[in-house]
Hints:
Elements: H1 14-24, E1 37-39, H2 45-62, H3 70-94, E2 105-108, E3 114-116, E4 137-143, E5 149-160, E6 165-169, H4 173-188, H5 190-193, H6 196-200, E7 202-210, H7 221-233, E8 241-243, E9 246-247, E10 253-254, H8 260-268, E11 273-277, H9 289-294, E12 296-300, H10 303-311
Amino acid sequence: MRNDLFTDHYGFVVDYLAEALREMRKHNFTEAIDHHFSLGAHLNARDRKAVRKTVSGLIKILHPHGDVSREDMAELLELALQGRRRVKEQLKKMGSFEYYHTSFSYTLQESGEERFVGVPEQGGRDLISTDPLSPGTVYTAGVTADGTVGLYRMEVSVAGGTGKLKMAGGVAGAMKESVQRAFSYLQAKKVELGVGRDLDTSDLHVEVIDLLGNRVEGEIGVAFFVASYSALRKAPVTPALLVLGDMSVQGNIKPLRSLVEPLQVAKDNGGKRALIPIENKRNFLDVSADIVEHVDPIFYGDPKTAAAKVLGCP
Length: 314
């Protein structure tokens, strides 16, 4: 302690404040929001408990008498919903599909109006861009057995060379193997695909950017094939598109384990359409109406058809 730290004005005795806060622990305002509002369907039991406790704590600090107007209560409720949604958004990145219900809302009991609460840092920042992409760029996703989804932007560029594949970064493990299988197919079918001369005199450089940062090793062979064909033909893919599926060295399509999770990620991050293996068509029945309304499916049965449907070139 130094003399310049002392004040010559009145101070708030810490012991008094601590006693006041201790006394407020005896009060419970977790049910206060029920007088004016009800919580939305996307909040599960844990979410509701966390939001109610946050609101109760804010009331104790800002309105210790417990008399809160509807307007002030709405402000406190929205702050609590924002805080809880931030927790769920991080769990969504780290965990499985159970955390993907983050459209938090509350309803005004008097009018029945439902208000959705977002977080400012997410406003308008869709990971899947709706703007036209440069040739060789596609969005893709992979899903693990436990439902964890990885979302990626794949960029393939063409440079002078002798037809080699060069990994620029972000490609490892199962993802690397799927890219190599797709490249083997591309090499074997280059004349039939009309890119033989271009591929013989060029090297393909591929980079994969993990947009969610959860390090899921997705099998994304079809996305690499589409991106490579796009780069070689200098034709961009359809905007806001998510390319799904993997392939063998002979071009046989491998369907996804599940369709619901990657399509939910596509919807949440700005995707408008998805390129889906025809083998997954029956899984489309499991997709919710909300996702179907926002993400249009484009089914394909082989790599060449997949590229033709989204590149706009023969």
